[in-house]
Amino acid sequence: MSQFTSFSSVRIPTKESNLFTLLDDLTYEVGYEWSGEFITVHDWFQTNFASTPLIVKAFWNAWDYRWILWSVLHDYLFSKSKTLYDFQRANDIFYEAIQVTWTPRWIAIIFYLWVSVWKYYHYMKKRFV
C-alpha cells in the first residue's frame, strides 16, 4: 500500500501571505509499499488549497493533517504538470493518497471528481486561450 513516508509541519497563512508553506520535505511512495517510486515535495513549497470544494469544507476540518498532506501533494504535482496525462496522473495519485490516510470514501470520491473536472477545465482553458 502507498504511504506518506515523511512530513513534519506546515506554516499557516499570515497577514503577509495567504499561503501555506511546507517547513519540511513531504515524501509520498506511489502505488504500493516498496514500489520505489517516491514523490518529494521540498520544504518551502507554497500553496493556498484554493480548489477545495465548498461542500467538503462544510463537513471536513480544514486543519486536519490528512487534508494538508493530500492538498500539498496534489498542488505540487499539478504545478509540475504540462500535459493532460500529467494532470490526470496528479489527480489519480491524489485519490490514492486520500485513501491511504483512512479518509471516508465519499470524501475521496468528491475530491477526486472535483479536481478531475475543475483541473481539466483549467487545463483546456489555458490550452486554447
Give a description of the structure.
With 129 residues, the chain is of the alpha+beta class. The protein has one domain (3-128). The chain has 4 helices and 6 strands. The protein has helices at 54-59, 65-80, 84-100, 105-128, and strands at residues 3-6, 10-11, 20-22, 26-29, 38-41, 46-47. It has a 3-stranded antiparallel sheet with strand order 1-4-5, covered by helices on one side. Strands 2-3-6 form a 3-stranded antiparallel sheet, covered by helices on one side. A hairpin with an 8-residue loop joins strand 2 (10-11) and strand 3.
What key attributes describe this structure?
3-stranded antiparallel β-sheet, 129 residues, alpha+beta, globular
TL;DR of this structure?
This protein is an alpha+beta fold and 129 residues long. The protein has helices spanning 54-59, 65-80, 84-100, 105-128; strands at residues 3-6, 10-11, 20-22, 26-29, 38-41, 46-47.
What is the mean predicted local confidence, pLDDT? 78
Strand proportion = 5-15%
Task: Estimate the helix proportion, in percent.
Answer: 40-55%
The H-and-E topology, N to C, reads as EEEEEEHHHH
Q: Total helix count? A: 4
Taken together, the total number of domains comes to: 1
Main sheet: which strands, in order across?
1-4-5
**Shape designation:** globular
Provide the structure class: alpha+beta
Q: Got a strand count?
A: 6
What ranges have pLDDT less than 50 throughout 5 or more consecutive residues?
none
The termini sit apart by 40 Å
- Largest sheet entry: 3 strands, antiparallel
* Rg, Å, rounded: 14 Å
